């Protein structure tokens, strides 16, 4: 089963370049190209891709607003920001809007393909530079010990695995429990930590030292 990808970038040469090397991977299928955020939202609804590669600086509608609308209207579609911008406002804006990943356009082609596959499986994908910037924005207690007042031992285990880029299916297999049990743990984590996504949960874990920032994206390297 191939992973369906929608490419969004206002530069035609960039879109064509991305399509060119993504289509070399038999596991990926480029189902469309959008030149701005408004087009991306409409195409995401029509084409139902698994992953949208989203540039952030575009005319008509920027990538952050497009990400917000896609995640609201088509929540099964994952969004990975792929940009040359590494400003705090852009990084935090994309993640708060619901992007599961934030990668730079300097990312190696093979790494990008693997990151798309991982994102489709629900794994957090962050460039190390983006992770460090995002950690400053996450409100968290000062140490892992403080978690014991909020989370159960099993919830801490699940949080670590989320932060290390594991999807629910992988976590269930590693902990020898049902997928439904993991989903319950994840929902409890979101509520207790006051976060709304796997990416925010992973950053929370890195901020308090439960995992290192590098571990957040270790699955893609």
Structural features, described:
The protein has a six-stranded parallel β-sheet, sandwiched between helices. Helix 4 links the parallel strand 4 and strand 5. The chain is globular, with a radius of gyration of 17 Å. The protein is an alpha/beta fold. The chain has helices at residues 12-22, 37-47, 63-73, 88-97, 109-120, 128-135, 153-163, 168-175, 179-193, 198-207, 213-216; strands at residues 3-8, 28-34, 51-54, 78-83, 101-104, 125-126. It folds into two domains: 3-120, 3-Layer(aba) Sandwich (Rossmann fold), CATH 3.40.50; 144-220, Orthogonal Bundle (Arc Repressor Mutant, subunit A).
Tell me the count of domains.
2
CATH class of the largest domain: Alpha Beta
By CATH, the architecture of the largest domain is named 3-Layer(aba) Sandwich
CATH H-level superfamily title of the largest domain:
Response regulator
**Main beta-sheet annotation:** 6 strands, parallel
Strand order of the largest sheet: 2-1-3-4-5-6
Helical percentage: 40-55%
Please state the CA-atom Rg, rounded to the nearest Å.
Answer: 17 Å
Q: What amount of the residues lies in strands?
A: 5-15%
Q: Helix and strand string, N-terminal first?
A: EHEHEHEHEHEHHHHHH
Number of helices: 11
Low-confidence stretches: none
Number of strands: 6
- What sort of overall outline do the alpha carbons produce when their principal axes are compared? globular
- Output mean pLDDT: 85
């Amino acid at each position: 089963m191939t992973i369906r990808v929608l490419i969004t970038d206002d530069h035609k040469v960039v879109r064509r370049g991305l399509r060119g090397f993504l289509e070399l991977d038999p596991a990926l299928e480029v189902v469309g190209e959008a030149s701005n955020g408004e087009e991306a939202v409409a195409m995401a609804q029509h084409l139902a891709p698994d992953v949208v590669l989203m540039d952030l600086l575009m005319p008509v509608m920027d990538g952050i607003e497009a990400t917000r609308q896609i995640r609201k209207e088509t929540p099964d579609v994952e969004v990975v920001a792929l940009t040359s911008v590494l400003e705090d406002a852009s990084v935090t804006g994309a993640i708060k809007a619901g992007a599961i990943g934030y990668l730079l356009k300097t990312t190696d082609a093979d790494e990008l393909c693997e990151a798309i596959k991982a994102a489709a499986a629900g794994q957090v994908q962050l460039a190390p530079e983006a992770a460090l910037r995002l950690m400053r924005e996450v409100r968290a207690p000062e140490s892992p010990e403080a978690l014991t007042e909020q989370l159960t031992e099993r919830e801490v285990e699940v949080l670590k695995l989320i932060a290390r880029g594991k999807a629910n299916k992988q976590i269930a297999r590693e902990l020898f429990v049902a997928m439904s049990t993991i989903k319950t743990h994840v929902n409890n984590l979101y509520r207790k930590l006051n976060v709304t996504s796997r990416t925010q949960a992973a950053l929370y874990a890195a901020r308090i030292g439960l995992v290192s920032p590098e571990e957040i994206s270790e699955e893609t390297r």
